[in-house]
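Researcher: Here's the sequence for the chain we discussed earlier.
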Amino acid sequence: MAGRIAAVADLCRAVDTALDVLVVRVAAEAAEEGWTTDLMREASAGYHARLQQALAGPRRPLDAAVPARG
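Model: Thanks. This is the structure I predict for it:
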């Protein structure tokens, strides 16, 4: 069971990383089109919150709870 839990934790970290990349990429594209962070927040508060998390860097409780495999 510990191996399965660690595998799921690894998957969660990978998904979080992929989402961070996607959110930042879309923000960069939006900025190129003249969007400000205020406009992004107005368009979607959830997206803006995720962008702020992505820009803040690593903050995942799973990192402390389950050591990375590798």
